[in-house]
Amino acid sequence: MDARSRAFVVHRTPNRIRIKIPGRERHDSYFATLQRMLATHHDIIAVCINPLVASIVIYCRNEFDIASVDRCLIDCELVLPSRSPDGLPQVAFPYRDRSTGSIWLVNLAVKLTIAIATKRVEALIREWVIGAVVPALLRLLWWTLAQQARSESPRALLVAAAA
Question: Would 85 be classed as within a structural domain?
Fold first, then answer.
């Protein structure tokens, strides 16, 4: 990979875009400059930054072209989410950054040690199970609703949502 890091669009709605820039965590001055540059764009309504987790949330107008933000990203290449063969957007950003695997392992060991010391292992196991099951159920629900949206008319969806 070249000297430019990558900025990933992790979530997008018509009026809101979330971008993550792995490797730029805690770079306050970088994100302050980026926020000032993005705020000058005529289609951007507001910009919220979180340098702690290297996240940018852009509130924009409906016809906003995300590719126009690329010129504002300093030393970053914008990676847009691709579309799957069925037309659904795919997540461009990995669920877990593999470069932080050792940090994740240390976090796991610390949580397990605390759970054993406080005799709360069952609570930790419940937390892990819920942490794995809930995202899987949400993905299944999203996929089911997306399948129904393709097969039903918009009017039928509105009637079902109102009920």
Answer: no
